[in-house]
């Protein structure tokens, strides 16, 4: 019992000394923290976590308002100007932007020398005007003044002439012309000449008489549309005929009819062939391919596109920009966790890439935006990709190949 009591006293003494040691240690830690808090902090404020703001180039536009590390800013030039420098700049970790400043250089509309017979070309906004020398006239100085026919009248075609209707009133002869004709010649030898309404109203403030082509006829006019279009009830506007919807196509079995401005195309996109022998695809629908399961020993296969989809868009010429053409989003199966992060970008398209911007519209959706007008007729393709990440780890990539069919007309 005596030994136990001595041990009990010894343990109590050790406990008191241990508690005192903890108290002293906590006091020293508190003093150390207080002294550190008074020193200048080497936190994120001293590191470059963002880049300086960028401004839009003269005669151009800027897309993107975030200047944090890893963010992109895109640039485009207005119509009539071409871009000198990179179309995209990235904020780097050292707080500077990649690439050099973008400049939009003027593309002169007078470079093709449109003025004839010694005329001088004068630049205007997206157009030109010819200053003609003496005895020459016309939009391109193509007419000699003394021989230029009146632009609003048909003079040399007998089919467009009528004899006036004349009557004597109080021994004086009065003559008149039918609607759509005007009096020409002398009082003794007058004739009714057709008024070319297509020329008279060509520069009218209310717009041209016809959406496409105006055809002058004796005393009147009518509008016509190009092949593959139909005239609407207003008698002036044209609308594309959907040959696919009306079954006016000759696409064979196994192909799909795609309506275009003024026509159609028969398409049957094929899945990409294996390039390394370990990535292969199978067609799951007329416009989608899915990757086959990857071999266990393949490192590159999981990084190849999991799905590839094909999309065909028919657009009018000179579509007003910016215009959203295509949206890409992810879908998660019920009961399965989806990705917590998505990244969108333009994967391919050659020179056409500069005409587009891929940006996020919300957390799960990316948009392909046309930022430069496209003049038809032409066809071009652009590839956009969406990558899925979970806890910053790459999960899968999806590729969409967007094929644009630009009509020759602006309707």
Question: Helical segment tally?
Answer: 2
Mean pLDDT: 84
Q: Care to count the β-strands?
A: 29
- Spatially, the strands of the biggest sheet line up as 21-22-23-29-28-25
Distance between the termini: 109 Å
How would you sum up the major sheet? Answer: 6 strands, mixed
Q: Percent helix among the residues?
A: under 10%
Would you tell me the structural class of the helices and strands? mainly beta
Report strand %: 35-45%
Low-confidence stretches: 41-47
Please tell me what the overall shape is: elongated
Could you tell me the radius of gyration in angstroms? 38 Å
Describe the structure.
The protein is mainly beta. The chain has helices at 2-37, 197-200, and strands at residues 60-63, 72-77, 81-84, 88-90, 103-106, 120-124, 127-131, 136-137, 143-144, 161-162, 165-169, 172-176, 181-185, 190-194, 213-217, 220-224, 229-231, 238-240, 256-260, 263-267, 281-285, 288-291, 307-315, 323-329, 341-348, 356-362, 365-370, 378-390, 393-406. The chain has a six-stranded mixed beta sheet, with no helix packed on it. Mean pLDDT is 84; it is low at 41-47.
């Amino acid at each position: 019992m005596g030994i136990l009591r001595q041990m009990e006293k010894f343990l109590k003494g050790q406990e008191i000394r241990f508690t005192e040691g903890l108290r002293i240690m906590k006091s020293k830690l508190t003093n150390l923290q207080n002294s550190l808090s008074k020193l200048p902090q080497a936190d994120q404020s001293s590191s470059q976590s963002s880049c300086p703001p960028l401004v839009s180039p003269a005669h151009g536009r800027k897309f993107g308002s975030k200047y944090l590390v890893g963010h992109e800013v895109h640039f485009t030039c207005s119509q009539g100007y071409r871009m000198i420098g990179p179309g995209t700049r990235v904020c780097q970790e050292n707080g500077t932007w990649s690439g050099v400043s973008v400049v939009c250089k003027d593309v002169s509309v007078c470079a093709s020398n449109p003025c004839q017979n010694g005329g001088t070309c004068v630049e205007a906004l997206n157009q030109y005007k010819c200053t003609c020398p003496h005895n020459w006239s016309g939009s391109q100085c193509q007419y000699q003044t003394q021989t230029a026919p009146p632009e609003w009248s048909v003079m040399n075609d007998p089919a467009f002439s009528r004899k006036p209707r004349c009557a004597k009133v109080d021994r004086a002869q009065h003559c008149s012309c039918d609607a759509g004709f005007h009096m020409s010649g002398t009082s003794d030898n007058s004739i009714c000449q057709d008024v070319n309404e297509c020329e008279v109203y060509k520069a009218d403030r209310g717009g041209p008489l016809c959406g496409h082509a105006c055809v002058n006829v004796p005393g009147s006019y009518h509008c016509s549309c190009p092949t593959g279009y139909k005239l609407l009830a207003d008698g002036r506007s044209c609308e594309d005929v959907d040959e696919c919807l009306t079954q006016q196509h000759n696409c064979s079995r196994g192909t799909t009819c795609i309506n275009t401005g003024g026509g159609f195309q028969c398409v049957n996109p094929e899945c990409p062939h294996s390039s390394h022998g370990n990535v292969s695809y199978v067609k799951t629908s007329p416009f989608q391919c899915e990757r086959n399961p990857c071999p266990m020993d393949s490192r590159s296969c999981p990084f190849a596109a999991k799905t590839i989809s094909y999309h065909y868009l028919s657009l009018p010429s000179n579509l007003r920009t910016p215009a959203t053409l295509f949206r890409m989003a992810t879908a998660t199966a019920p009961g399965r966790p989806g990705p917590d992060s998505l990244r969108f970008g333009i994967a391919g398209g050659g020179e056409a890439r500069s005409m587009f911007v891929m940006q996020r519209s919300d957390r799960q959706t990316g948009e392909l935006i046309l930022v430069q007008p496209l003049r038809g007729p032409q066809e071009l393709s652009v590839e956009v990709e969406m990558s899925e990440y979970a806890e910053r780890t790459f999960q899968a990539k999806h590729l969409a190949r967007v094929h644009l069919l630009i009509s020759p007309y602006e309707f």
